[in-house]
Design goal:
Length: about 475
């Protein structure tokens, strides 16, 4: 028989699962391998051929196994994932993958795993790991409460559910080096990390992607309520973050490129189609915090931030401590965010920063200064470009800007407004508060009827305040606080 004919006649995975389900009734079998039923799961694992599938029968079974990744095995549950449970009984890890190669888990549950090191349920140091339709619940470890990998080609998680896992770093998943990480169409809830990454801690990952997933109720004792990115690149697409919390930094996402040895390089964070709701941070970045990197590139596209909060800076976004920061926020909405400085967005960096807002709506945000946006810190130069963006109903309680505030510690600030709208921004000294050294250029910008929509004024610096009836204007301020057209 030719190879092609053999492939055409081979049973499909669904047929194999159905056949294995029939054999699972044999003497209360634990697993089926190539049509042979085994009473002991360990024996089934040992009997599986290279590239083989171990069909695990319904039931709850304690397992503490070592799997050779070079065999490229698949462990697949028979029936619903909830009914096929591999447990560590709260005392040991379920699976340890050794060697190189791969392991696939499909349609099963790993529960109550424990490790004093990495991976409460699953640990793989070199072999690729794929989880499809897996439930991971109530696992605990020092790093990666449910799953941990180190220096692997790929960690892929799809159509899976993580519940109530705990760790010091990476409440559910920790990646300590991977060429690629992907989390697709999955739900993560109740993860707790006592330090960073309530659900995910991603270290040294050049390509990480989170797509179509939901994070709810995750917590971190320091940074990254849901996700901590510790070097590399992360692209978050069409994902929801709800009621996530960090004690200090990044209520949903924290990104940096400083490792534990203090080295810094570059971080790239892209959020597209994100939905952040009631995310909180005890210090900076109610939803997202980017910090401590030589170079940072941030993109936020088609995303919404509602009722996010930070105690210090950036009720939704806090971007800073980068030598060079390039950020763009486009076609997004910030509503009812609050912080002490920068109710929605705060930018403060040691070096140079460029921020573009295009097609953004900032509505009803509040702060002591910079109700919607604050530029602060020891930046050498900050450029802010605002295009077709609305500032509506934002407020400040101190002598700052109710919509935009530029702090006096910023060495140089250049603001350009094109097609912007300022309406009903109240409090502070003006809608836009400039520093002593700054430049404001405005084209086709709507300041409201008769200059009365914003109070007490439209624009102010330490030397003056001014309102005008929506005309195109250019304003410059010098180091002494003097401003002129």
């Amino acid at each position: 028989m030719s190879l092609l004919v053999s492939i055409l006649l081979a049973a499909s995975p669904a047929d194999a699962a159905a056949s294995s389900e029939g054999r699972c009734g044999d003497f209360d079998a634990a697993a089926v391998v190539e049509g042979v039923a085994y009473a002991n799961l360990g024996d089934a694992l040992a009997a599986a051929p290279r590239f083989g599938t171990v069909w695990i029968c319904p039931g709850t079974r304690a397992l503490q196994a070592e799997v050779d990744g070079a065999r490229h095995l698949t462990l697949a549950g028979v029936g619903a994932a909830e009914d096929v449970v591999l447990t560590g009984r709260g005392s040991h890890r379920v699976l340890r993958v050794v060697g190189t190669g791969s392991l696939i888990l499909r349609d099963l549950t790993v529960a109550d795993g424990y490790s004093a090191a990495a991976g409460g349920a699953i640990w793989s140091e070199h072999a690729s790991l794929e989880l499809d339709g897996v439930i991971a619940r109530d696992n605990q470890a020092e790093t990666g409460g449910a799953v941990a990998v180190g220096q692997v080609p790929l960690l892929s998680i799809s159509d899976s559910r993580f519940q109530d896992n705990r760790a010091y770093g990476g409440g559910s998943v920790a990646v300590m080096g991977a060429d690629r990480f992907e989390l697709l169409r999955s739900e993560l809830s109740g993860g707790i990390a006592s330090f960073e990454g309530g659900e995910l801690a991603l270290g040294d990952v050049p390509r990480a992607r989170v797509d179509g997933s939901r994070f709810q109720g995750a917590q971190a004792g320091w940074q990254g309520g849901a996700i901590a990115l510790l070097g590399g690149s992360l692209h978050v697409v069409d994902s929801v973050f709800e009621e996530t919390w960090a004690e200090e930094l990044g209520g949903a996402i924290f990104a940096t490129d400083v490792d534990h040895e203090g080295d810094a390089d570059e971080v790239v964070l892209v959020v597209e189609g994100g939905d952040f709701h009631t995310c909180q941070a005890g210090q900076d970045g109610g939803a997202v915090r980017v910090a401590e990197t030589l170079s940072a590139t941030v993109r936020v596209l088609d995303s919404s931030f509602t009722w996010t909060w930070a105690d210090a800076r950036g009720g939704a976004l806090a971007l800073g401590e980068a030598g060079t920061l390039t950020a763009r926020v486009q076609d997004s909405r910030f509503e009812q965010a609050s912080a002490s400085e920068g109710g929605a967005v705060a930018v403060g960096t040691r070096g140079t920063a460029s921020l573009t807002l295009a097609g953004v709506q900032l509505v009803g945000n509040s702060a002591t200064q910079g109700g919607a946006l604050s530029l602060h810190g020891q930046a050498r130069a900050v450029e802010l470009a605002v295009v077709d963006t609305g500032f509506v109903g934002n407020s400040a309680t101190r002598t700052g800007g109710s919509a935009v505030h530029v702090g006096d510690q910023v060495e140089s600030a250049a603001l350009s407004l094109r097609g912007a709208t300022f309406q009903d921004n109240l409090g502070g000294v003006a809608a836009v508060r400039l520093s002593e050294v700054g430049a404001l250029r405005a084209w086709a910008t709507d300041w409201g009827a008769d200059g009365a929509d914003n109070g007490p004024a439209d624009v102010a610096s330490p030397a003056f305040s001014l309102s005008w009836p929506g005309r195109v204007a250019e304003l410059r301020c010098d180091g002494a606080g003097g401003c002129s057209w």
